[in-house]
Design goal:
The complex is a heterodimer of chains A (509) and B (81). With 509 residues, chain A is mainly α. Helix content of chain A is 72%, strand content 0%. In chain A, α2 packs across α6, α3 crosses α6 and α8 runs antiparallel to α9. Chain A is globular and about 65 Å long. Chain A starts with 5 loop residues before the first helix and ends in a 17-residue tail after the last helix. The relative contact order of chain A is 0.11. Chain B is mainly alpha-helical. Chain B contains four helices and no strands. In chain B, α1 packs across α2. The radius of gyration of chain B is 11 Å and the shape is globular. The chains are: A mainly alpha (509), B mainly alpha (81). At the A-B interface, α11 and α13 of A face α2 and α3 of B.
Chain lengths: 509, 81
């Protein structure tokens, strides 16, 4: 069942209706049944065994941690449990990436290994499930929550249907309040949820799927485009990814809101960021928080890193002793962020190495840049400087997004060679490189769609709550706006017979 | 150590950590009030405070403390005052 299909809207509506009709004590069982149904319709039954296995490991592991009478026993239990959960991800997903890397390297060296990939069907959203369950087990170890005594309730926490395919990555202490505390029906919450879903459909069907046509066409014939044409694709790749991923989150969060279940936000106007560090505080926020709380902080607080800091302090002084361990921590975290996306070279580069390089460069040269701006009397507290920061950040991150779409090292090197190849003058002058499989009508729709999306983002950035403001208007006006939005998606959305719906880029990780 | 003495020592750590002698924190100060206090500086600050008072924060305290007041509560509890 696709999240953008009419069946999914109907499914959410039915699940929400029955959820509010059922007695309080069985509401969670209904959500579990609905999640099971969604899982089975999203992929076949075989991966269900892996999913069940992961949940059972977390269940028994957390119980063992809680029952251990001493710290040593608790440490052993958490280490074994986390290792088992992570090994499942490694075998089912990461290992194939490593095999592809070895194969690519052997071909480049002229001695191809021709390795066979492991053919095991991983459950959809295994990467999200792994982080969710690892976080739960560590939280039990840190005594931030109690171990769940009912394995079925833990299963619901791990596989709640709206968020199981693409996050947001949730925490047990927060979700147990949302899933297991009974909620009464609230028509406003239902309307807010549906409005949020509608906004997600607009981003996905009107903007992202239209841009996907251009992006797919480009990557099917990358040698046909050069210079400005490639720059244009780099830009639209970023907009497509944002419209696609944030649209997916709007649908997921909106579907949950229909049942008055609040999921954490994953985006906070990322293109308003003036630095790469700020960008990643606003983009895929739950992933960043997860890596900060469960990897970066424990690493920087660990005894070996503290000992290293002490020895650096003696040799290099206090400033270096503070900075160097932080840089090491950042490199480790970004390596694992890249690995979480995929172990293939291109993904490690685009999702791990390059963002890490950007952040380290800004950390290393930040002070010099500050002095230079002071020396050159450049004002940093004005709109033009903030805009410069936003454009610079957007450009840097667009390159990462573009590389992640290249699909392989050879394709990646080819498109970057094309980037610096000579652009044909007529194509540049008449703007025909903008078409890329789209008619003028589609191009205009994309432009208007992007304008609406970015305007809404600016309003959010300024603290305007659009849905709350809309709810305060007269009924007639609200319905006119809602109907206009529904018809805009129905008329201008890319879907229907003859169209192959594009999967969400981040779904099923 | 009294609470005021702990606060004075914490202020010293803040000034030292952020290399800014003008910083003055109180019970209600949050990360939003100190421009350089981001997620990376937070863990450096925690480490400095641990070294200063000879205590260790639990990880749930590191990620859960809402303001300097909560930090003082933990320090006061660990140092036995």
């Amino acid at each position: 069942m696709s999240l953008t299909s009419f069946n999914f809207i109907l499914f959410v509506f039915c699940v929400a209706a029955v959820y509010f009709l059922l007695p309080q004590r069985v509401k969670w069982l209904w959500l579990l049944a609905a999640s099971g149904f969604f899982f089975v319709t999203a992929c076949d039954l075989r991966p269900l065994a892996f999913l069940g296995c992961d949940v059972l490991i977390a269940y028994f592991g957390a119980r063992a941690i809680e029952r251990s009478s001493n710290e040593r026993g608790r440490k052993i239990a958490v280490a074994i449990t986390v290792a088992l959960i992570l090994s499942m991800l490694f075998v089912l997903k990461t290992l194939n990436g490593i095999l592809i890397d070895i194969d690519t390297a052997s071909r480049l060296l002229g001695r191809p290994f021709n390795l066979n990939l492991i053919e095991l069907a991983a459950p959809i959203g295994l990467s999200y499930l792994t982080l969710t369950l690892t976080g739960y087990v560590v939280d039990v170890y840190r005594e931030e929550c109690s171990a769940q005594k009912n394995p079925l309730k833990l299963m619901l926490f791990a596989c709640f249907f709206p968020q199981m395919t693409a996050g947001p990555i949730v925490r047990y202490s927060q979700m147990s309040r949302e899933l297991f505390v009974p909620k009464a029906f609230d028509p406003n919450a239902l309307l807010f949820g549906l409005e949020r879903m509608l906004w997600g459909f607009f981003k996905k069907l009107v903007i992202a799927d239209r841009l996907a046509i251009s992006v797919s066409l480009y990557f099917s014939r990358p040698t046909d485009y050069s210079g400005l044409g490639v720059v244009y694709v780099i830009l639209i790749c970023a907009f497509q990814l944002y419209a696609d991923f944030s649209g997916l989150m709007d649908i997921v969060i909106g579907a949950s809101q229909c049942m008055r279940i609040e999921l954490p936000e994953n985006f906070d106007v990322p293109f308003s960021a003036q630095t790469v560090t700020e960008f990643f505080r606003r983009w895929h926020m739950t992933l960043g928080l997860w890596f900060k709380d469960y990897l970066l902080y424990p690493l920087l607080k660990s005894n070996p890193v503290r000992k290293l800091a002490k020895s650096i302090q003696i040799k290099r002084g206090a400033a270096a002793s503070k900075k160097l361990p932080t840089y090491i921590g950042l490199v480790v975290v970004w390596f694992f962020v890249g690995l979480w996306h995929s172990a293939e070279f291109v993904d490690l580069l685009a999702s791990g190495a390059l963002p890490c390089l950007y952040i380290l460069t800004s950390e290393l040269f930040g002070a010099i840049l500050k002095k230079a701006t002071k020396l050159l009397r450049i004002r940093t507290d004005c709109f033009s400087y903030r805009l410069f920061g936003q454009i610079r950040t957007f450009a840097l991150l667009s390159v990462c997004f573009f590389i992640s779409r290249c699909g392989g090292l050879s394709q990646c090197s080819l498109v970057f060679r094309q980037l610096f190849a000579q652009t044909s003058v007529p194509v540049t002058v008449d703007g025909s490189f903008l078409c890329l499989g789209l008619f003028d009508y589609d191009l205009a729709l994309v432009a208007v769609g992007l304008l609406i999306m970015l305007t809404v983002d600016i309003l959010h950035f300024r603290g305007v709550q659009i849905r709350v403001n809309l709810a305060q208007q007269n009924l007639a006006f609200r319905w006119i706006v809602l109907m206009a939005a529904i018809f805009a998606v129905l008329i201008f959305g890319v879907y229907g017979p003859g169209f192959n719906p594009v999967d969400f880029i981040y779904a099923g990780f | 150590m009294t609470r005021d003495e702990i606060l004075a020592a914490v202020n010293e750590v803040f000034r030292d950590n952020f290399c800014d002698d003008t910083i003055v924190v109180d019970e209600k100060t949050t990360a939003a009030d100190v421009p350089a206090w981001d997620s990376l500086e937070h863990i450096n600050l925690i480490t400095e405070i641990e070294d200063c008072f000879g205590i260790r924060f639990k990880m749930k305290e590191v990620t859960g403390m809402k303001n300097v007041g909560e930090m003082l509560d933990i320090i006061a509890e660990r140092t036995g005052k």
